[in-house]
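Probable glycine dehydrogenase (decarboxylating) subunit 2
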Amino acid sequence: MNNRLYGNLIFELSKPGRRGYSLPKNEFGHHEVPTEMRRSEDAKLPECDELTVVRHYTNLSANNFGVNNGFYPLGSCTMKYNPIINEEIAALPQFAALHPLQPEDTCQGALQVYYDMQKALSAITGLEEFTLNPFAGAHGELTGLMIIRAYHQSRGDLKRTKVIVPDSAHGTNPASAAVCGLEIVEVKSTAQGVVDVNDLRGLLDDTVAAVMMTNPNTLGLFEREIPEIQKLVHECGGLMYYDGANLNPMLGVCRPGDMGFDVMHINLHKTFSTPHGGGGPGSGPVGVRKGLEQFLPVPKVEKVGDRYHIVTSNDQDFNVHVGEFFGNYAVMLRAYTYILTLGKEHIRMVGPLATLNANYIKEALKDVYELPIPTVCKHEFVFNGLKDKSTGVTTMDVAKRLLDYGYHAPTIYFPLLFHEAMMIEPTENESKETLDEFIAVLRKIAEEAKATPEEVKTAPHNTPTGRVDDVLAAKQPILTWKQLSN
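Predicted structure tokens:
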């Protein structure tokens, strides 16, 4: 590989006078730009020919890693394969060329898809109605909490300002509650990694707005005490919120609505195969139980007879508003295609297969990696680093060494319950052969940690960029390019 094109910045490939474009002849005359809008000096842009630009960015793209490249066991993120048919449907001009402001009579088909998707999610989760407006999972959390707050305010119950969050929760849970203007109260986990019901009892009173739970939780464990928890919360007047980040193993097994949850969000870009990573795209639909539908945000789509209509007002004193339009419609299209492709007959296989794959890896490695909670997991599980701590090889070292073998590292140092946490989630898509190869590599790294620990501690060795100083990068990030003086 030519390192000049592969390892340099586009600015470093620049040569004065080089161009990769030609503009058509000016047919509109000359118009002066007002002085106050002009730059004081020319913009420092790279000057490159088209071939150099194409080669540079093509080579850079080879550094990207995704599910299409290889195994991506990123725990708590459900990095699921996105079938090509999803992309084909989302790219259809009948969808891609729609404008959000065009009259509803001209987009009846698109509105039907939106409406049918809402109904599909209701059937899958056991909740009454959904909005697809939120643009991400955390946006869905915020929307759900706004619905909960609006519900309590509509009843004049203004003192309910506390949200109880487990100590194992995703960081977005307390963050979303804080953004919503609510107070966060932490409930502890038991030694078995699930919510401590006794600790919860002492936190419940008439100031609690909701309890946020992820099920399975971030340790990949099913919260078996949910029947008791939802009973206690509802008795004190609070609502149950379901963080749908880990919904994947529940598909075909159980539904949050049947468990007693009142509000939930779903990550379409996790559970329903649409691509994510790098900050987007995302979609965080929010569902509610019967009796809370009026608090869902507008706009929404309703069906009257055989026609679909856009409703822009819900006539409520406590309106929830999260966006002018209908969320990330193209992401929703991909998820809808995925649901229709599987059908109700096969979507029920997703959860059991994801659970089987996770337990297969866990059981195959627990003799060399420390398993702090030795029980059956769901879609993911957490190791606490290598079992042999005498090597000095950390979870970070193992993650970096995995890169040398062509694997994306799993989630590390989360959840915070374990010092050397390594969270692995294989998803249901992966074959036994892929899992066996991954297991073999992790076992080999465990052997290297004993025989040649420095090789692991200094990894990666085969990537374009070696090990970076994470602390320095966090404290003194270089976010812009600056030309060095000659």
